[in-house]
């Protein structure tokens, strides 16, 4: 083998090695789910899918197109034949007042109990968490749901918070994708 051929082989191997290393470094790192928790409301809030749909649509404030869309969402939501409703929606329509405080109470109940359970199950302290992302399809309060969470559990001041709310049913999946992207670029 001549010196020129040896140089060509060496450069080819070096180039191939560089390409392999660059591809290896650019690969998508997996993001693992280490623990999860679900909120289970009190049994007195349990209702069937039909009752849930009725309670949601009974105020007759929606036009036909909106009602049909909501019925489609109900049928594809995965709620099943047994689901739960917040107490204020179960009141008679004459007494039904949809206001901010009951919605905040419902959000706090669900989020706080879920996060508390998750922190206990995973044995992670709030001060060890550097990123908090909250998703809520419809409700978008001020202060944000992530701010309420930070205040309740005493996360460190440098924690980064994001709230995906008022975005409809896609908020949850967008939130999971966003979290995965953030964790790939800033592990921990």
Overview of the molecule:
49% of the residues lie in helices and 9% in strands. The mean pLDDT is 83. The longest helix is centred in the N-terminal third of the chain and has 24 residues, at 3-26. The chain is mainly alpha-helical and 188 residues long. It has a domain at 126-188. It is built from six helices and four strands, in the order H-E-H-H-E-H-E-H-E-H. Helix 4 (100-122) crosses helix 5 (145-153). It has helices at 3-26, 49-57, 64-76, 100-122, 145-153, 171-185; strands spanning 46-47, 83-84, 131-136, 160-165. It is elongated and about 95 Å long. The strands form two sheets. A two-stranded antiparallel sheet has the order 1-2. Strands 3-4 form a two-stranded parallel sheet. Helix 5 (145-153) links the parallel strand 3 and strand 4 (160-165). The chain crosses the membrane at residues 6-24. One of its GO terms (biological process) is fatty acid biosynthetic process. Residues 25-187 form the FAE domain. One of its GO terms (molecular function) is acyltransferase activity, transferring groups other than amino-acyl groups. InterPro entries: 3-ktacl-CoA_syn, FAE1_typ3_polyketide_synth, Thiolase-like.
Oligomer: single chain
C-alpha geometry:
elongated
The mean pLDDT is 83
Strand order of the largest sheet: 1-2
Strand content: 5-15%
Order of helices and strands: HEHHEHEHEH
How many DSSP helices?
Answer: 6
Count of strand segments: 4
Roughly how many Å apart are the termini? 51 Å
Give the helix proportion (percent range).
40-55%
- Uncertain segments are none
Radius of gyration of CA atoms, rounded to a whole number: 25 Å
SS-based class: mainly alpha
Largest sheet: 2 strands, antiparallel
